[in-house]
Amino acid sequence: MTKLSSNTRLDDDFFKLLRLSLGLTQELPAKMDAHGWRLLYQMALRQSLVGVCYKGICLLPEDCKPPVEIAMQWACEAESIKGMNELLYQETARLTREFEEQGHRTAILKGQANARLYPDKYARQPGDIDIWVEGGKDCVLALLPHHSKAIYHHVHLPVNKQGVTVEVHFRPSSGNFNPMTNRRLQRWLEREILLAAQVEENFRVPSVKFALVMQLAHIQRHFLSEGIGLRHVCDYYWLLQHSTVEDRRIVSSVLRKFGLYHIAMALMWVLGEVFQLDKSLMLTAPDSYRGNWLLREMMTDGNFGWYAQRQRFGLLRRVYENKRRHLRLMKFDFWEAFWLEVKYWSNIVWTLPTRIRYRKLSLRDFQR
């Protein structure tokens, strides 16, 4: 196995625990003291993999397990994740039923659609519910409360009484920054999502080949704009495990056309190094240069880049650090990084009157 350029012993132990948790290996992490286990727990938190990794904790021999107080904290968090998953499965089925009773086909994107592919479908740490609803933007907006605000691909609803956040999609994906590849990607996804099938959890999910393309675009977009974590790579591992040879052949054939080839090569390398994915399941040859880059940012910045050092700076310094990062990312994928910058500066101009009116400098609340 290639040596990870950013790897530490703690990273290595975390990867071993993750593989043990998913049933991919019997190899155990090294014995460690309470401090080491606290760091490992913090790493699982940063990657939104606490519930998944807890399965491995339960499999450890007694002399390798964490101290009781850390094990209890981990167990409580895992039980909370299980309860949240149970709630989200119920809410997802309810939303599906309500929209389809009004005559609109639906599909669940990511989230619970991915969770059901795991060995334990209650272990994946959930976020919000992403549901695609047929009919296009105007039709979907007519189904929702009048104050709902749409951005490019979805409507973000307020947190409901159960504490669940829902994003109602009228486009299957946020897509690429590059408008040329994005047009081709969106057309393909809009055709494929119509093939969504009912599953035993009482909602519809798209085909595996749809999910492989859509979630690769999702990973690319978040990696370039803010950051991405290992939870998304874990999701992708299980998508590939549930794919057929024909699924992978079709997806591999469209990667260049959809502007996803570079991120696919990087992701295949991470999947090979961290999850020991068999090469027969890979969509492309792995790229160690981009893969190391992707994994290094995942491990330092955490899920969605929430733990990145640049997030702790003030507004002006944060903008400066983000611009520096975007320039470096041109070595990763020139055209995606270029169009990311174009989108940023066009938003500056487009939202300027509104931001002046509300006396806000940040673009965070003014997406298009």
Specify the biggest β-sheet. Answer: 4 strands, mixed
Helix content: 40-55%
**Major sheet strand order:** 1-2-4-3
> Assembly type of the shown chains?
single chain
Mean pLDDT: 91
In terms of DSSP E residues, the strand content is 5-15%
Broad structural category: mainly alpha
Number of domains: 2
- Based on CA inertia axes, which overall geometry fits? globular
How many individual helices? 15
Topology as a string of helices (H) and strands (E): HHHHEHEHEEHEEHHHHHHHH
User: Distance N terminus to C terminus?
Assistant: 44 Å
Please compute the radius of gyration using only Cα atoms.
Answer: 21 Å
Number of strands: 6
Describe this structure in words.
The chain is mostly helical. It has 15 helices and six strands. The protein has two domains: 9-307, no CATH class; 315-368, no CATH class. Helices cover 55% and strands 5% of the residues. Helix 3 (50-59) crosses helix 4 (68-101) and helix 8 (208-225) crosses helix 10 (245-254). The longest helix has 34 residues, at 68-101.
